[in-house]
Batch of 2 targets.
Target 1
Amino acid sequence: MFVEITAPTALPAPASPPDAGAGVSPGGPRADSARSGRGRSRRSPRQLVRLLGRGVVPYLYLAPALGMLGVWTYRPLAETVNYSFFSWNLSPDSPATPQGWHNYHRLLTVPEVGGAVWRTFLMIAGLLPFTIIVPVVVGLLTAEVRGRARTVYQALIFAPVLVAPVASAAVWQWMLFPENGVVDRITGLSTNWLHEKTPALLSITGIAGWHLLGFAVLVVAAGLASINGDYAEAASVDGASRWQSIRWLTLPLLSPTLVFLLLTTVLLAGQWTFPLIDTLTQGGPVNATTNVYYLLWEYGFQSFDAGFASAAGVVFFLGFGVVAGVLVRLSDRLTFHDN
Amino acid sequence: MSRITVENVTRRYGGTTAVDAVSLDVADGDFLVLLGPSGCGKSTLLRTIAGLVAPSEGRVLVDDRDVTDVPARGRDLAMVFQSYALYPHLTVARNIGFPLRARRLRRAEVRRRVGEVADALELSALLDRRPRELSGGQRQRVALGRALVRDPGAFLMDEPLSNLDAQLRTATRTEITELHRRLRRTFVYVTHDQVEAMTMATSVAVLNRGRLEQIGPPTEVYDRPASAFVAGFLGSPPMNLLAAEVIHRDGQLHAVAAGVNVPLGIAVPRRSPDDAAGEPARSVLLGIRPEHLRVTSSAAAMTAATDATAAEAAASASGSDGPVTALRGVVRTVENLGSEEIAYCVVGDGEVSVRARRPAGFAVGDAVALAVDPGQTHLFDRESGRRLVWRPDPHPAVPSARVPVAT
């Protein structure tokens, strides 16, 4: 008769167990579990300490970073939320009086807020050519530049990022000086750039854009470099023209980078423009360059209305949080992992 | 339908020459395999044909049209990349349809042709997936589909099977061969895998350090390697190559070395008594395929007779009808391949592999005597590595022409 050969299922017991294998029979798994059970009951205090240490150590490493986040980000955030329900003039002598939702109600009714939000939107829109369109064009045109030439041109284009905004504001103020400034002399215009409503907004946006251009170009260059060169080669063999290859491959594959730049622009536009506004126009003329951040700062530190400023801060925080959430989800959906 | 001609193409990268003056002619409908070890320039050569790399010198012609300066998209060649280069953000259908879309075909037409190709490659169920949702074999088929869909003049393939597991590789190999048979298109296929080269090619070009070593049908490349490199590259294990001297003995040419005395089956009539003595021995590499070596005697019959003199004695003692012991050695290791076994034997100061059907009875430490048919020996020049063939002397008066000539 035929006898089937069974497949090897259980591992045979080790020939010589490394530790005290006197009681181990060649029974396999059962003997093993018996041994480990015995080990658990006899765990020494020292082993316990070691086990505890193993659990605690990762959190010790994390502690400094978490502590900093707590002290510098989440505690102020909680305090801001708290102050938004009080009326307080920042003076240590005067008490904060509870106001309930009154600050939020004021925020929705004060006419300046709507204008500031609109101008913030205009500034962000005005920055996008500097942070997305120009960098993509520059990135595509300079993708072929290699070696030292590439380093030199990237260093040159990155330099404005390193200039302190207040310093550059001083230089730009001088260049934008009406009639005698370099800008007016070159363009032949007699625009008073910083003291007319639309030119002031354009100037602030333009100077901020000049600052950010180098950063955005580097990010786009990194994004382009991370796209596998095989795709462009495959496309050219497949008969695609350079423009088709850019439109159908490069831009879609670059889209996560572009969303990242959009996100940075939206979220950081206020921070980047703030020093320029404060140095050059102080929000003027007639609030023409007051964006939400500058407005917030004015409420808090010019009008000393800490509660109102806090309420504005909380609302803007939530608003930008929603925008960021949407963009992050968009970025995730646009990312195509190739492997 | 395309004939591809490569004329004297050289490609340099800085100081290194990746492709060195290679000339090839791939006839219409040929399946040419560019074979060689990594870094031999085979991929660079393929990319030069595709138009992705510009040659430093030389010309590329497709159907006798000089395309050296024509960009890749103007060459009517399709390429399958080693990485497949599937566009990660596009579905399978859009990936396959890409070449048609680039040619601005109508949507309905694109859909129809993508459907046909997908049917042929059994991809119909996967058309809406993205590359990352596919297995390695499916990705490979999509890459193939993208090449097939536009019906190009020739297919270029850069190690298309190297990312597949062994089983899938064998299956896909057969599919590609079948595809070539059905389409009757020109294929240029780069691989470092000699099995792929032997099984798929109608013609194999072996490259080494950017130079073309040999081009010919697989059987010719295997049976008559044009250089020691080709001999040592093809076969698993490859051809045994032993440094030997060609000497004149008893009106015959023999290749001899320590433990080696191989009659070459070339009769040289003695013209004068001091003729042979005056002719210097020629240094060669003697090549013998492992499967062409036969074991002639058991270990007991030959007691420690492993030096050249004993081999000579044995060779002269045995008649022309029996197998002549050509090599004597000692088995060092034995490999079991299932159907066959390979014995690695120490012969003189070299090593010789012997391939025999199982059970061949090799045991480590055994002394073995091996015989080879003179017709299955190969000679290569020791300096240039080129194959030597015997050409009977047309002018008996000139003795120097009697030595083998390099081809």
Target 2
Amino acid sequence: MKKKLLSALIMVMLSISLVACGGNQMNSDSDSTQSQTDNENASEEIITIHVFTGLADRKTGTGLIEEILFEQYMKENPNIKIEVEALDGETYKTKFKAYATSSEMPDLLGVWGQPAFINEIIDAGLLAELNPEDYKDYGFVKGALDGFSKDGKLYGLPRSTDIMGFYYNKAIFEENGWEVPKTYNELIELAGKIREAGLIPVSMDGADKWPLAIYLNDLIAKIDGDNGDKISQSIANGDFSDPTYKKAAELLRKSVEAGLFQNGFETTDYATAFNLFANGQAAMYYMGNWEMSIATNPDVLPEIRENIGVFAMPEVEGGKGKVTDIAAWNGVGYSISANSPVKEEAIKLLNYMMKPENLSKLTWQNGVGMSAQDYSGYLTGDETVPQKIFTNILMEATSITGTPINDLGTSAFKTVCEDLCQELAIGAITPEEFIQKLEEATK
Amino acid sequence: MTTKIKNNKKTKVSKIIMMICLSIVAVIQIFPLIWLLDFSLASSNELFTTGLLIIPKKIQWGNYVKAFVDGNFLLYLKNSLLINGLSLVLVICISIITAFATTRMIWKLKTAVKTFLLLGMMIPIHATLLPNYIIYDRVGLTDTIWALLIPYVAFSLPQGLFLTSGFMEAIPKELEEAALIDGCGVYRIILIIIAPLMKSSVATVAIMTYLNNWNEFMMASTYLRSKTWKTLPFSVLEFTGQYSSDYAVQFAVMALTALPAIIIYIILNKHITKGVAMGAVKG
């Protein structure tokens, strides 16, 4: 009996090891045939472009739009083969670092046009320079290319314009006779009224911390108005003594003390914050324009999704900024690898994607966000309310903040700055300590 | 007489208390699985309503269809099974052989070698991620099955060696001596005498290796680029949006991913506790 069992075991082991070897052989075979075909293809000029993107979901949203464009491009150019590798968020950044050390950097890359991310890779010479002349007719909005440029050279193109604002539930506001606040104090007062009605005033994603940093940046814009590159300067000099910062920090703390955000907002993650609003438990929701598709989201109840309005951060009493000085920036985009063997082809693909009638138009028509290009030619008048309002906010803007404070320094500064914003919000540190620690973080 | 009744009562009471405690533990252990199943059948929007469990308005079998079709489930399952199966066999074979060499055979450096191998337990995966990637890149192993197989075996081996060598010390030497006298060689001793006696510790090593590697994503996402060898955790990723994700489908994928793990655990369950306990004392 035991012998039988043993021989059976050995058989299994042997067969598995055989399979392993066989598998390996097949594998190396296919590898070699692949490299062979690669060589043959080179003579037939079939070119493989390797795309590395941070949009893991390829079936909805911007990921789907990328897929559509890649399909189209391959149809129009039969000699091009596009291979997509998609990871999300932090795993994307880790893999990006790995690629940066290797010989096989993908050709077309998703990047963030913010110093915290892009400066390090530009300095390492990983990104190819693009010719700004090519994009004269692409209708990029003013300043959109700044984040992707360094020392006057262009290294990437932005995919979107991001604007922060308050989504609000118009039905709830009307029922209770509340009005859209014109000033920050009115917003704080409104918070009390909404609390009395048993609702959450503003649903806030505090666990991810960056919405708090942007909220702070939004307040700075309302206090200062158009302040140019003051924040960048402060980070470069390690000097946050300007009273604006302390005032903004105090206002953020004040809104938490007044109960503007839900209880436990510091542990509420993105999806939960979104759903507090989408389920009607919160009257407002502070988030970017990329969530404008909430108005057509079939998972959201019709009585809520059809009643959504948007307003920008209201003016601060005594502040120089107007309501039209908005928190907006061009964050995500694409670059080309400097060492790519198919650099020319990759740039052609990028140029194709970024043509106004492609990415820009599809993004708008699918309601998944706003491109960094002038999309006014594609307005039909049938857009959803959030789409219309965000467009208005952007068109009437007297100034935009650009990259938010947390993304303006190094990647280490980003982590510290976001942590500090959260600690400030929950009252673990005072505004004075916040300023002091922020200065320390720049050193 | 009376004391006997008292004793009976006592044992009854303590039995009841034990049963209550055990069922509480069981509920705590099983609840996440029920929760997983429950959420995988609801729609994404329903997940955020209050209450522990949801009664879905309509049972969403579509989540599972999506998981299978859009999540490339079958391909990834095949890869996961193959990679895990191979690393399992390798880890078990190598740890038994090494354990024999370092506990039974007498040679100069045996303790040094054993300690050196066990040191591997202290190396965190994250520290090796980039250096390994650079080596693979130079050797041309990225995006092959070896890119996963090598680290999976390497990281499970110290633990496997620790458990098997502890267990092996508990096997009486006399058995081997008898075998030697009857004319067994070293290989036959390992195969015919030692290996069958190691069943429970092999089961323990198998479960631990399997559970460690089944859900591993960090290395897989770094070392692989094409679909060919991607493993099951990538399936969850297919439904991760830029900001928010399709949670219901992700739950369905996770339920499907957990299923093989649960089946294997049930099969090997009998042996695992024994293996850990016996290996621990002499380790």
